[in-house]
Design a protein that fits this description.
This protein has seven helices and five strands. It is of the alpha+beta class. It has two domains: about 10-95, Winged helix-like DNA-binding domain superfamily/Winged helix DNA-binding domain (Arc Repressor Mutant, subunit A); about 115-174, Arc Repressor Mutant, subunit A (Orthogonal Bundle), CATH 1.10.10. It is elongated, with a radius of gyration of 21 Å.
């Protein structure tokens, strides 16, 4: 089965839904503005990652249907497997969902600057901004932005920093 590519917003919404016992999408915890939530949900519906189900709570209504009444959204078994979550709670309860194979892991390039920086941060002595900048040929502000943006926010890595007498501020992975 091919890997399903998700945007950051799609991943946040799906992760929150899959973390709930009932798998419901609403209430959405992502800080999306305007019609962004609707657009993300429509995209997830088209891909079969969420499905429409009758709503019992008027605070979680996605839309109103003339025949079915209030409708809300719930994560499907495909959503759980695409996020790498082994068990779908609905599958455990009623066994009505078809089994879905886990997606193949994403292919990663080797020899990238990201890989080099992560290796530097995993060393026992960690790395300073100047060392990272020299190894990647980035400006210091780019190295700092990479640590906070790509590594902390996007990859979710826990990075510590401490001031070392001889070296200055040293960053390391926990």
């Amino acid at each position: 089965m091919p890997q399903i590519q998700l945007s950051d917003a799609q991943a946040v919404i799906l992760s929150a839904a899959c973390a709930r016992e009932d798998g419901m999408v609403f209430p959405v915890t992502a800080s999306l503005k305007g019609g962004a939530v609707g657009n993300v949900c429509k995209s997830l519906l088209k891909r079969g990652l969420i499905e429409e189900v009758p709503s019992t709570d008027h605070h979680t209504v996605w839309r109103h249907d003339d025949v079915r009444g209030p409708i809300t959204l719930r994560a499907t078994a495909l959503a759980y497997s695409s996020l790498g979550i082994a068990d779908d709670p609905e599958e455990q309860l009623d066994g009505q969902h078809d089994a879905v194979t886990a997606p193949e892991p994403a292919r990663r390039r080797s020899g990238t600057k990201q890989e080099a920086v992560i290796a530097m941060l995993r060393r026992a002595e960690g790395a300073t901004i100047d060392e990272i900048a020299a190894a990647t040929q980035w400006a210091p502000h780019t190295a700092r932005g990479f640590l906070s943006g790509a590594l902390k926010k996007k990859l979710g890595l826990a990075i510590t920093s401490e001031r070392v007498e001889a070296r200055g501020r040293v960053y390391a992975l926990k």
